[in-house]
Design goal:
Elements: E1 24-31, H1 37-44, E2 52-56, E3 60-66, H2 70-78, E4 87-93, H3 96-108
Antiparallel strand pairs: 1-3, 1-4, 2-3
């Protein structure tokens, strides 16, 4: 009886799959008016390769895509139409850790609500 060493490949969650020569990119963006998460995900699903929304809190968000899809994702985010909503790409990083660091830096400089 011979045993064969088989390797089982497990897919990456979302459609930002790493193919040959592709690297993951994380696009940090800001939304200037609150948008429901469901609406934003529906807008992102219109792209053929469906980037993955990693984080969204109503003000800031992180989208995962590949280095080849990065420009299309940024362009798609900037053309988002939902009332008077405007989405601006802040930074593109190569790791989720750096993207979270960028978010924490932006949160430091956000005005805090005044308590009466």
């Amino acid at each position: 009886m011979s045993t064969s060493n088989t390797v089982i490949k497990v897919g990456v969650k979302g459609n930002a799959r790493k193919g040959k020569g592709e690297r993951r990119r994380y696009v940090v963006f800001r939304v200037w008016c609150p948008v429901p998460k469901r609406v934003l995900i529906g807008h992102m699903n219109r792209l053929k390769y469906r980037p993955y929304l990693v984080y969204y809190d109503g003000v800031f968000g992180i989208v995962r895509c590949t280095n080849r899809q990065k420009e299309d994702v940024i362009k798609h985010l900037s053309t988002f139409k939902y009332g008077a909503v405007k989405i601006i790409s802040l930074k593109t990083t190569g790791t989720i850790r750096k993207a979270k660091r960028v978010l924490s830096e932006y949160y430091k400089f956000m005005p805090q609500p005044l308590d009466p």
